[in-house]
Predict the structure.
Amino acid sequence: MDTPELVSKVLDILAQGAGSAASAAGSSAAQALIAALRERLSGTEDGLAALDAFLGDPGDTAGATAARAVLERQVAADPGFGRLLADLTQAAEPSPQTITHSVVISDRARVTRSQISLGPLTVNNNAQGRLLLAVLAVALVALIALAGYGGARVFTDKDEGSGPVTGGHGASKSPAATSTASATTPTARPLPPTQATADAILPDRAALEGTEFESSPDAYFPDGERSDYQGTICGDYPELCAHRVHAGAAGGYAPNDLSEQSGWHAELQVLAHESEADAERTFAALADTTRNGTSTKIKPDPSAYTPPENSRLGDEFASYRTLWEGQDLGIMCVIRRGPYIALITQEKDGGAAVLDNTTQTRLNTLMLRRMDEALSGTTPHTALREVQSTY
């Protein structure tokens, strides 16, 4: 949906929540939306004031206009924040309920001495009516028994297995497959967010064999010219990482045809966090720092990279321009997947260098796959030669 439509839905949900304390407390999704907005606007005094004014009086036209302007600016500046709002808005919207093959007693039900009326169903107090009630009673007992059995199976299956099994791309398997898998194969645990895992996610020279980045030990970027935490963006902007980033790894990669006139190289980074929430805070801190103009090396620019249609972009995504002494040097994409953040950069080494959108897509996809593998409990192994599309 476009920005005005998204902002309108957000304001509608906020207005409904503000109208009733009980309603607001009962909707965890609406509360999550409000919390996300407060966190986002916490550094902007005017923005937070506009949000509070709207929540205090949703019917005030001037307040609604001010809140709308603030949200539209935030979404326009950060498409990733717009996607987060869209997800939270969808979760907060009431979903229609369909009840099939059930008996519903509504306000049209009537009970008298001669008959019972349940909406379209009328049971008369005669022999046939009493027989029908007996059949309904037997059916009700059977349903209760089945429900009890199902509930018992929930606890039994939970005790017998090790929890629900998820596919490699996050799609839950069917209950039957889950029960079978938990009885035969333990659920894989994600790799711990350690330096070893960060190093494993970062591709090495073997993962680049057979590609334009293939190099020898004495090449311009041998084995990715790897470095640890201090070589990541945390070394340049330690306030972004605070104490949330547990480990980091960085590497540089150059294609075989590197030249002083037209050459360029890629730089890949991995930041590992203890939790997804910590990674979200680091991602937001990066966006806040660059948006507020305190960064002199990167600046937000959604036009820097054009993702293919329907491509996977992780849980959060943003694109930037990289700068050197104020001059445009290259492009950088930032992808958050669970507790990991990957930074994928192309930079010019020659005045005639041309940065490649297709290569950027392949590198983005490579890093996303390797983060997925770490989350599935598998040592990251995807190679660049296997990446031909967006996933």
About this structure: The beta strands are 110-111, 115-118, 121-124, 245-253, 264-273, 298-300, 316-324, 327-337, 340-348. The chain has 13 helices and nine strands. The longest strand covers residues 327-337.
